[in-house]
Amino acid sequence: MAAGERAAEPLAELSHYVVARPIYSEAGFQEENERRPPLPPTLRERAQAACSCSRKRAFQITKSFLPILEWLPNYRVKEWLVSDIISGVSTGLVATLQGLAYALLVAVPVGYGLYSAFFPILTYFFLGTSRHISVGPFPVVSLMVGSVVLSMAPDDNFLIDGSNATGINGTGMLIDTESRDAQRVLIASTLTFLVGILQVIFGVLQIGFIVRYLADPLVGGFTTAAAFQVFVSQLKIVLNVSTKNYNGVLSIIYTLIETFERIGTTNIADLIAGLLTIFVCMLVKEINDRFKHKIPIPIPIEVIVTIVATGISYAADLEKKYNAGIVKSIPRGFLPPEPPDVSLFSQMIAASFSIAIVAYAIAVSVGKVYATKYDYAIDGNQEFIAFGISNIFSGAFSCFVATTALSRTAVQESTGGKTQVAGIISAGIVLIAIVALGKLLEPLQKSVLAAVVIANLKGMFMQVFDVPRLWRQNKVDAMIWVFTCVASIILGLDLGLLAGLLFGLLTVVLRIQFPSWGGFGNIPGTDIYKKVKDYKNVVEPEGVKILKFSSPIFYANIDGLKSSLKSTVGFDAVKVYNKRLKALRKIQKLIKKGKLKATKNGIISEPGITNEAFETDEEPEDNEDLQVPTKEVEIQVDWNSDLPVKVNIPKVPIHSLILDFGAVTFLDIVAVRSIKTIIREFERIDVRVYFASYQDNLISQLERSAFFDDIVRKDIFFLTVHDAVLYIRNQKTCSDNQDPIFEKISLMQESKEPIEFTETTRPDDELDVQEEAMRRLAS
């Protein structure tokens, strides 16, 4: 028992602390503790640091540009090689089928999807910093590329007459599909090349931070809208319904309307094959997810379905008997590299910017998930360079933009992939399909490939269930999600992404412009200050108001600071001052008329004279100089008591105001000027303004802005709110021992000229003039 008591004693001692130290203002603290300002490096020092080179530095730069030099020498062959081979084979089979399927989204022949699943991996193997992502096509990015391709090479540009036609469009006109496909491949590869250039530029300029502006709710809403766009674009392929290629605002609505208008022409063989593929793929994927701990390798259902569907199509001759849409032709081997069409850059620069950002954001967000899981780091700027060079390289070989696919990366990681060796092996599987197996897939129905795409959209559609959770946690984030999703569906992916980004930034601006604020009070017996409205036992110091403004202060929210000040103190300092001036004018006129007397004890009426002091505020002022000969009289006016003039002067129940700037990170020049004006406004009505809990950079900023002078000094700045409260309490005790809180007014009535007062609504430079007028009446 005694031992237990002895063990509890130290814990009891640690549950309280007592600190004895001086009350620190900024001036006092700097005097006692010498400040050490940071010395920025000179231009010469920066140049020397940037241009200096050593063997170690050169090797570090080389490793940062070629991350393979970092991880390959540490590769554990015995532990990782077998896992990487199994993972690479599984991922390669999935990549082959997804490459064929995603080519439909780009509106190019399906064979080019195999090239896009092969070439980007070769360069990323050397340059990438993620060990687990599977590089290749992704449906969202493929659809964005496809929208550019369809807008620049629509079917209407390839209508021809006579026997040279190789296809028919939805209106019965003949289309030169060979020329159309060649032009679309050129546009897609040129766009890929331009996206690669932009990504390399972003990486070299070290602006990988740009992806931080794509918040998770924004990405979630965007990818969900993209999944819906992908679903609609593949629906007409599953139905084998011919429609126009719409692009731009409301294109998805027009596509849906025309698809349902032509639903009577649905090919039953394609519809059945597509529905069966969707059902089987989603069922087996669900089994893979539920029993992933028991199944060592996920069932490659896409590969199995594709092989079965190809065999059935070939055996039943579905193309001739049921007019089913099949792949028909897959080029065998590789095409020679071709340069991009530079003349097209000007038409696709805007779209390429958004595609470059989205492709990078998807890859980095997926890569960071696995980097966190396996405890290694991803270099965002190097990822920009890696994907940029990969897209430049693959663009020369007729590929479309590469990023990573969530489902393919999940296969690579879940089957035991440890490094990008698995990625290079998956590229080998795709290579085999390009060289040897392409012809075997020619009888495959396009509706099966479209169904594979739709089945892989399940994860993105499931993001809809994040909205209720977001709404409970943060309503603003939920609004960003919904707005981005709706905008991307209605306006298209490129404009929708821009609209969502602007809306997200707008919410940040509004949250800064209208931040949280409140009056604070003290927890008795502590140095803790909390909101008065939130806690029952919080006590406001007598005669002191404490305002905490939780935001940077700049030109957009300075009015919010002023309105929060009025709400906290309960009055408008400018109106109080103007009302006092009005009362002083009336008192002066009545004294000169002999209706009031000014004595040291206050203002009294002459006996036997009717007191006409209670005049209406609307009575015209008499500026006539009455020249009443008197001597200088010093009187006292208590502005919180009843005055012998009918002027409604708001009571000022405080003598001090503390602004808690603990959450203020910066001030602009408008804020600095406005705060100085606020100080002067309150000083004129005998309310001292103090600042507390500020950050050091604010003091430096105020010094640069010439904020401090003879009136506004550093001794009104305190390290904590409690320091300021204790200082005010000490000052109040000293002042109470000397004089009561009254304003002593000296009336120079022997002067022949009346004293002028000017009412102001928002004084700035005129404050000094009004203060001088007050001084002429006050001592």
From TrEMBL:
Record Pfam families: STAS, Sulfate_transp
Transmembrane segments: 100-127, 134-153, 186-211, 218-239, 268-285, 297-316, 344-363, 384-406, 421-441, 448-465, 480-510
Coiled-coil region(s): none
Biased composition (Basic and acidic residues): 755-764
Domain of life the protein comes from: Eukaryota
CDD domains per the UniProt record, alphabetical: STAS_SulP_like_sulfate_transporter
GO MF term list: secondary active sulfate transmembrane transporter activity
Major site of localization recorded for this protein: membrane
Any one of the GO CC terms: membrane
Membrane topology per record: Multi-pass membrane protein
STAS domain ranges (all copies): 534-728
Chain positions covered by the region annotation Disordered: 755-779
Keywords (A to Z) from UniProt: Membrane, Transmembrane, Transmembrane helix
Compartments reported by the entry: Membrane
Family annotation (InterPro entries): S04_transporter_CS (IPR018045), SLC26A/SulP_dom (IPR011547), SLC26A/SulP_fam (IPR001902), STAS_dom (IPR002645), STAS_dom_sf (IPR036513)
PANTHER family registered for this protein in UniProt: SULFATE TRANSPORTER (PTHR11814)
Protein name: Solute carrier family 26 member 4
